């Protein structure tokens, strides 16, 4: 009896893991660009400019690939994720991180993956194995350690804490709402139309964007465009691709690798040399992700006999609908 996973299954796993890696790396790189663009653009204007750049990029790709409109059954999830994750989340996060120190932001915003796990278990029926929970606990501790070690000693306002909490809640709710939509629409469709919904939500900031773009240095505007093309258009699409092939809880846990990458990128591009506590926190983040994505021996053995044992229990789309 052949107990090894089939080649198509193994290839699909590698593609999903690669897509998740691209997402985490690009989302971590957004830290550097937001630091630069945020000096010239207000939170709402930055969010709108980023979403417009992302929507334009995704729209061109959709036209080239001849992607049609998402099916009616996917629109509810797309609209909710676009409103909450692409819209409210980006504005709240940009604004909140201007009002709180890094430690408080890390503590509040990084509750997002934990909320994803709880909402996913409640609303989507996602399993919550002990290794996933243990890994998330280790990663959360690491994220908070990184934030505290990189804090400049600034103060935290009540409004800033509320905005960071709003960002965490809307991020979690947006991910959980997006998951069912990926059952009938392609990752590119879900990302493109979600980004469009977010841009529409942020249109009230259009006046600020026009005014600030006229005065902003070219470097800040280029960073805003970068945020739209790569951490938004590309990274949200690779996220949706990976999410369509695993559970929301497991994908949420994967994002805990971002703080460790932020430390490395801040060192390379901003000259911010990490201290020992920062390095320890980054190591904890990566260790927690490794634990959360590992499987017990019994599950591994069962999966070897059944290649689909660890797959998302919801039915997958056909090859045509997954284009």
UniProtKB/TrEMBL annotation:
Protein family membership: Belongs to the EamA transporter family.
Compositionally biased spans, kind Low complexity: 301-310
SUPFAM superfamilies with a match to the protein in the record: Multidrug resistance efflux transporter EmrE
Source species of the chain: Streptomyces coeruleorubidus
PROSITE patterns to which the protein is assigned, alphabetical: TAT (PS51318)
Pfam family, one: EamA
Comp. bias regions, Basic and acidic residues: 311-323
Region named Disordered: 296-323
Sorted UniProt keywords: Membrane, Transmembrane, Transmembrane helix
Protein name, UniProt field: DMT family transporter
Transmembrane segments: 12-34, 40-64, 76-96, 102-125, 132-151, 157-176, 188-210, 222-241, 253-270, 276-293
Residue ranges of domain EamA in the record: 19-146, 159-291
Domain of life per record: Bacteria
Entry keyword Cytoplasm: no
Keyword Transmembrane: yes
